[in-house]
Write a structure and sequence with these properties.
The protein has 10 helices and 9 strands. It has 212 residues and is α+β, with helices and mostly antiparallel strands. β2 and β3 form a beta hairpin. α7 crosses α10. The termini are far apart.
Length: 212
């Protein structure tokens, strides 16, 4: 069976090295075959050991959020990408940012830019949702509440010292509607604060949203 035929079983999946070695088990030099498939446009390399099918193979590709989970992990999609996904900010996002327990990292790939920012445990583990992107694809994404908290703690220079400053940041800078802010689970945010960076800023966030 050719690679083109065999890979259909893995539609919508990132092709890890383990999957590639299984697909190419009949080849004596699988790494050479991988290079050949890339040149033929049947395979696209995201990084060493992680691939997706190339433009010459017309099958469904994995969603960028799922690729982000695989590219550097453990990690989950957050900040602007998650805020946009949940409909809290209007802007289209051109870089997928994630939090990770590993060191911070940036990847510029053929399918986009992916950035990863370190977060401490146990704060990292709070507010992560498993989201069904397609019937076959599930990705880890920050809840709306966690995405806002992550945005605040990871943005250099953002320290919320007053309700006025917090409101300006949320409504003017991030352009989040008051109605959307009132829908957030403030109890969840409050439960994370003792383990979070920028505790005072997150406390001010909760206070400000309560006053809306």
């Amino acid at each position: 069976m050719s690679f083109r035929d065999a890979v259909y079983e893995y539609a919508e999946e990132p092709l890890t090295r383990q999957i590639m070695m299984d697909l190419l088990k009949d080849f004596k030099r699988p790494n050479d075959k991988i290079n050949e498939l890339i040149k033929k446009g049947e395979l696209t390399s995201i990084k060493k050991g992680l691939y997706v099918t190339g433009p010459k193979i017309n099958i469904a590709k994995p969603e960028p959020f799922l690729i982000a989970n695989h590219l550097w992990g453990p990690s989950y999609v957050s900040m602007d990408a998650a805020l946009s996904y949940w409909g809290l900010i209007p802007e289209k996002v051109f870089e997928i940012s994630s939090l990770t327990t590993k060191i911070s990292k940036m990847y510029k790939t053929s399918i986009g830019r992916f950035s990863y920012i370190n977060a401490p445990l146990p704060y990292y583990s709070f507010g992560i949702k498993s989201v069904q992107l397609t019937p076959k694809q599930v990705a880890l994404i920050a809840s709306p509440e966690k995405a806002i908290c992550d945005k605040i703690i990871t943005t250099s220079g953002i320290i919320l010292r007053s309700s006025r400053q917090a409101r300006e940041y949320l409504v003017d800078d991030l352009r989040i509607d008051d109605e959307k802010l009132r829908e957030l689970d403030l109890g969840a945010i409050s439960s994370w604060i003792k383990d979070a960076p920028k505790k005072e800023s997150l406390s001010m966030l909760v206070k400000t949203i309560k006053s809306l």
